[in-house]
């Protein structure tokens, strides 16, 4: 399997059971080795007391893009730590885009940056995540048993 095909297959398998991202209306725009782009519409139910997107939803979008980027190599990979800096408000009614890219990967550890932008392409948040790969495959193992021919 090519690296791009592995990234796509891993994303498809994760997406199948990712109820949180799907429930928030996220969409996977693209995924590749160490990269992912996701979008999320900001609904009125995501507004905080100031009438802008609650930071927790922006964080969740960035975290989901991070997850798809760091799981693109076919190994179950989880967040070890992450931080976010909010730069501008996320307007209600807008579609936000999170673009994740791998900064470094060594052994079981990885470092990823995610930029969240508004519809005008201007950054509204910067997220950095550290990942840790586990000793498990995302994709089910292929069936290698042979049936006896009669």
Can you give keywords for this protein?
24% helix, 150 residues, alpha+beta
CATH superfamily: Hotdog Thioesterase
Note the main sheet.
6 strands, antiparallel
**Number of discrete helical segments:** 3
**Rg from alpha-carbon coordinates:** 17 Å
* Unreliable parts: none
Give me the count of strands. Answer: 6
Order of helices and strands: HHEEHEEEE
Fraction of residues in helices?
10-25%
In CATH terms, what is the architecture? Roll
Order of adjacent strands in the largest pleated sheet:
1-2-4-5-6-3
EC number: 3.1.2.-
Family: Belongs to the thioesterase PaaI family.
Keywords: Hydrolase
Domain Thioesterase: 50-122
Describe the structure.
- The protein has 150 residues and is of the alpha+beta class.
- The protein has helices at residues 3-17, 19-23, 55-70, and strands spanning 27-32, 35-41, 75-86, 95-106, 109-117, 123-137.
- The protein has a single domain, classed as Hotdog Thioesterase (Thiol Ester Dehydrase, Chain A).
- Strands 1-2-4-5-6-3 form a six-stranded antiparallel beta sheet.
- The two termini are 32 Å apart.
- The model has no long low-confidence stretch (mean pLDDT 94).
- One of its GO terms (molecular function) is acyl-CoA hydrolase activity.
- Its EC number is 3.1.2.-.
- Belongs to the thioesterase PaaI family.
